[in-house]
Amino acid sequence: LTVVEPYTEILGGPDIYLEEGFTMNLTCLVRDSPEPPQYIFWYHEEQPISYTSPRGGISQITEKGDTTASFLLVRRARMTDSGTYACHASVGRMAQVMVHVIKSQTPEKLAPSATDAENGSSFLKSTTYWLVLLALQGLL
Predict the structure, then answer these.
(1) Under a CB-based contact definition with an 8 Å cutoff, are residues 75 and 57 in contact?
(2) Exposed, middle or buried, 140 (CB in 10 Å: 0-12/13-18/19+)?
(3) Relative to the CA of 58, which of 18, 45, 52, 140 has its CA 20 to 30 Å away?
(4) For the segment 70-119, what is each residue's pLDDT rounded down to a tens digit?
(5) Which alpha helices (H) appear in 35-82, and where do they start and end?
(6) Residues 97 and 85 sit within 8 Å (Cβ to Cβ)
């Protein structure tokens, strides 16, 4: 009899670097679980992340399956968004990464045009789609 424990990881860790003003997309994967986790909670500096805070622009998307993927999206990352992020599923251990939001070298990028916003949204959707697809196929 082999007992397999669910395995939780955040892709790209242990350190993730992001330029301010861009969308942070953290991806938490839960693998080898006999059933999908009932929940996945995200934390920043050991505090539960609020999706209704005055800061706004924070959302979570979770795709349940053989490999469950949870995406934490933080729009227009700020320097104050730096720090330790963790995802904790109802099964398995907590996983964490250190996010470093770095000062923009080109401040004009902090105010994207409508075209940039549309392209960024499309790029984010496309990237998320491929990450989920690869994760579900066990390639990540």
Answers:
(1) yes
(2) middle
(3) 140
(4) 999 999 999 999 999 999 999 989 999 999 999 987 655 555 444 444 44
(5) none
(6) yes
Give the Cα separation of 29 and 47 in Å (integer). Answer: 20
Convert the pLDDT of each residue in 27-65 to its tens digit: 999 999 999 999 999 999 999 999 888 889 999 999 999
Neighbour count for residue 38 (Cβ, 10 Å): 9
- DSSP H helical ranges for 9-113: none
Helix (H) or strand (E) holding 21: none
* Phi, psi (deg, nearest 5) at residue 81: -80, -5
Contact at 8 Å (CB) between 14 and 63? no
Amino acid identity at 108: E
- Written as six digits, the tokens of 104 are 């923009």
First-to-last alpha carbon distance for the chain, in angstroms, is 27
